[in-house]
Amino acid sequence: MSVSPQVPGPWAQGGRTARFLHNVLWIWMSVLVNFASGFLVMPYIIHGIGDDNYGVWALVLSLIEYYWLLDFGFRSATLKYAAHYYALGENQQVNRVLNTGLLYSSVVAVAMLGVTWLAAPHLGGLFKISHPEFPRLVQIVGVSWSLGMVFNAFGAGLEGFQRYDITSRIWIVVSGLRSLVLVALVKLGYGLTQMALVLLITQLAIYVMTYVRFQQVFPPLRISPALASIERLREMAVFGFHTFTATVAFRILNQSTPLLIAAFLPIRFVSYYVVPLRVLDSASNAIGQFGMVTGSNTAELAAKREWTTLTDLSVYANRYCAALYLALSVFLLAYGTPLLTIWIRPEYAQVLPVLLLGATAANSQYNSACVLTNMARQKWYARGLVAEAVLNLAGMWYVLPRFGILGAAWVASGLMFLNRGVFVAWLLCHVLKIPLASFAGRVYAAPVGIAALVLALLEGLRHGPLPGVNWPQLILAGAIAFSIYGALAFFLVLRPVHRQFLLTRTREIGGDIMMRW
């Protein structure tokens, strides 16, 4: 497929810019709520149930995550083709895509639920877990993910229609409620089984609310097995094959390390590795959600063959995500160890600086992967992930018995940097036929320059008046860092039209608040 420019003009154009940034702002609001609730709730739960119990909880969630392999790329295919046909106004084809994905996921969910219920009593012996609640936890969480398989089509459809404001509102309400209930349960002395039931009930609430809102957004919706189409199934399967390959690799990369740590080391080391990883994943979630908006826009632009606009989208989406993640990275490089020491305990801080290297590189290029996927050019991206997963497994098997979780962090971070940071950027430039050096300069020059300046300032503060030995010092250091970084990024990173949009929206929101008062 040629991607030579056919439609002139910049990416940011009127309504598209407003819609894109509106979606991104809602997504980041949901991520901020999720991050804040996790920051407050996680240490309380760890102290309440203990390191070993939290390690079991993290292990169950890691194990059940493998179920998403059975999706075989159909969720991403549903998003891509729902966006494609919706952009072309072909509502009947949208219904065929949704019903085909729904029929497939329903069959898989029923089979998955049966296997989970039968296998759960035997999994503890396989992973050398003797915790009495482990089988029940697997069963309850397995029910939650099985239901998620069925309702995935509607969430993917809303994302394909670029209605992330709806999905974000649902997530904000339910995740906030979930956090409050979990704190109450731990305070009252309840344990892991009750936590799993809360997860199940709140996930079900998300699924039902998503379905109801999808019906409102897409009135032509018709649910019938007769609308499932062999032609659509074949189309979605072809697209989903490489996405499935990437998903398999991602699951292995994300979930195999905790399982291997449990096999080689005491169970508490799972907690020591997973907690800092989840701190980074909370920030990565903001980038991932941004990437979903990029993906649905890519599907629309590819359907309309607006290649120049798509190139601009790739540059600015990556630039903004690089700037956002670097803001967190520089603060955690300077103050991550004292932060985790005060927040929980010193043992939870040992792998954080190492993991930051790979996480920053990968998140700064996450949108490149989303563009490739929604152009249906993700074959070599998927193969790169498979290679990373294989090397990661081999590396973990070698380093864990010898160097512990710090060695595991170096293996994971180094592979992430090379593959998801460097290789993916080169691959996107190859597909879009743009020079890698020019692309890297447009993406990284301003964010990296600002990050270096702020990191130097933070190091001076940490070795001087603000060593970070208590919460007031950490909060003050963070306020200084993010204020300076944000001000510089606003003028040096944002494109003028995007800066003007944010200023206009801020004035509008402020005006609305004043009118109500």
Topology of helices and strands:
Elements: H1 14-49, H2 51-65, H3 74-87, H4 91-126, H5 134-160, H6 164-187, H7 192-217, H8 230-264, H9 268-304, H10 307-343, H11 352-364, H12 366-374, H13 379-432, H14 436-462, H15 471-492, H16 496-516
Relevant terms:
517 residues, mainly alpha, 16 helices, globular
Structural summary, described in words:
The protein is mainly α and 517 residues long. The chain is built from 16 helices and no strands. Helix 2 packs parallel to helix 9 (268-304) and helix 8 crosses helix 13 (379-432).
Judged by helices, strands and strand pairing, the structural class is: mainly alpha
Q: What is Rg?
A: 23 Å
Q: List the domain count as a whole number.
A: 1
Number of distinct beta strands: 0
Percent of residues in beta strands? under 5%
Low-confidence residue ranges: 1-14
**Average pLDDT across residues?**
83
Short description:
With 517 residues, this protein is mainly α. It has 16 helices and no strands.
